[in-house]
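Ligand-bound model needed. guanosine-5'-diphosphate.
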Amino acid sequence: MARFFLGRAHYTPEMPEIGLVGLPNVGKSTLFNALTAAGAEVSNYPFTTIEGNVGVVPVPDPRLGRLAAALTPDEVVPAMLRVVDVAGLVEGASRGEGLGNRFLGELRAVDGLAHVLRCFEDGNVAHVLGRVDPVADARLVETELLLADLELLQGAIEKRRKAWQTEPREHAVERQRWERWLALLEAGEALRRGGPSAEEVREQKALGLLTGRPLLYVANVGETRIAPPEALAGRLGAPVVAITARLEGELAELEPEERAEMSTALDLGASGLERFAEAAFELLGLVRFYTVAHGKLRAWAVPRDTPAPQAAGRVHGDMEAGFIRAQVAGWEEVVEVGSLHALQTDGRLRVEGRSYAVRDGDVVEFLFRAP
Ligand code: GDP
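Prediction:
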């Protein structure tokens, strides 16, 4: 059995980060724990919690498992996702009531938001507002985030006003941009609705603005499934992933064989955690490619359309600088044939140059000139 490696060494700044938001008692911590338990299971290292409720979660990846079974490497390293679980947002948080500022500060660095909605009925678990109504909850949390952004942006604008007046030309772009954002927020629209460019997203992130980040909803449907996610998706205007956080957490604690049995018995299909991770990757526009070298099979996450040299650079700086070409096969072919070498012998390994954009599921061997 291949060794799955996960440790502090795999903490890298380019690791994608998702923040869990939502009202208290909707299942955020339960989801976080399920993700980390699933992570601990593929790791023989102590699970990485960077601080408090920030976890590094290996992205559940059935393809990686299939590749590992076919290639029998010594080590398997999955792609990682950083997940931040902040304390539940309460009404009034944007005005510094309750957990406001700490909450918003912790979310500053996230690339995307996963908004957990309580869809389960359970008389033993209090709902902060006394009723299960995921659409109303979604609106309420969105409003709090909007108000927080509005206040933050107004403050930032106030600080720049003098500079805008004394050097109008130099600051024209910034001014126009910030004022456009302000108009959106004042109209009660998330910054996301303005279709921010990549540069705008970076600037919003630097300012700590949250409503421009990509968003997905996690419908914690519980065991009773009161809110079909299809209906929710239409009403929320963002992707929705349905999970049963508590059950997922319990499954993640089981031994693999037991888990498979339970999964089949309960007819769960792909685990909710897998779907969550997939959706998070999709939301952030990330794809995964794989490398096999020195007995190590590894998954790498890069933004969609990353050219091969930059993808190589993720593996090693020298590989980008000295990039010659990439030899590529789809993961399914590798699973079918059992090695990249055998594919090459069969003439089924594609040769790709600098302009090739790495695709999701590619198994890649980079050829490069050593410096
Ligand atoms: P958070 O405040 O959003 O982090 O919520 P928690 O994860 O602490 O969950 C609040 C309560 O809801 C806990 O008692 C959980 O056991 C319970 N809970 C979470 N997910 C489910 C679920 O899928 N079904 C049921 N019945 N209860 C759940």
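The first strand starts at residue 3 and ends at 4.
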